[in-house]
Amino acid sequence: MAGKRTHQNSQPSIMTTVRICQHNSCRKQGAAKVLKAFQTLAPNEMSIEPSQCLGQCGNGSMVLVLPDQVWYCRVLPEEVAAIVDRHLIHGQPIKPMLYRKFHPDQN
Fold first, then answer.
1. Residue 14, Cβ neighbours under 10 Å: how many?
2. How many helices (H) and strands (E) does the chain have?
3. Which strands sit side by side in the sheet containing 70-72, from one edge to the other?
4. Element (H, E) at 66
5. Which of 30, 35, 85, 104 could cross-link with 20 by S-S, CB 3.0 to 4.6 Å?
6. Are 31 and 21 in contact (CB under 8 A)?
């Protein structure tokens, strides 16, 4: 599922990739369901990828949005629709859901 970013402010078009950790700790926290929700809800022009360990064990399900370098932690399947709509489609990361380790001033 390769494609181009749909954010209105982007120039030139850059592929958006969403990586969802599928390692042991994240899988125990429901990462397989989070991955399936992204695969179902994300626009076709975005790449949704299962990932090996993202190195943040114990904070999953971990989601990394590239090229934005935006990290979400403890993502639940029912939260994916909001991430898709607000961040992936409209370009506005959801501050309360951001991983504080990498986004300390956003919470």
1. 13
2. 3, 4
3. 47-51, 17-21, 63-66, 70-72
4. strand 63-66
5. 35
6. yes
- With CA atoms as reference, report the closest residue to 99 among 67, 44, 33, 55: 55
Alpha-helix residue ranges (DSSP H) falling in 1-107 = 24-28, 31-41, 80-82
What are residue 17's DSSP bridge partners?
47, 66
pLDDT per residue of the chain (107 residues) written in tens, 0 to 9: 444 444 444 445 688 999 999 999 999 999 999 999 999 999 999 999 999 999 999 998 999 999 999 999 999 999 999 999 999 999 999 999 999 998 988 65
Amino acid residing at 72: Y
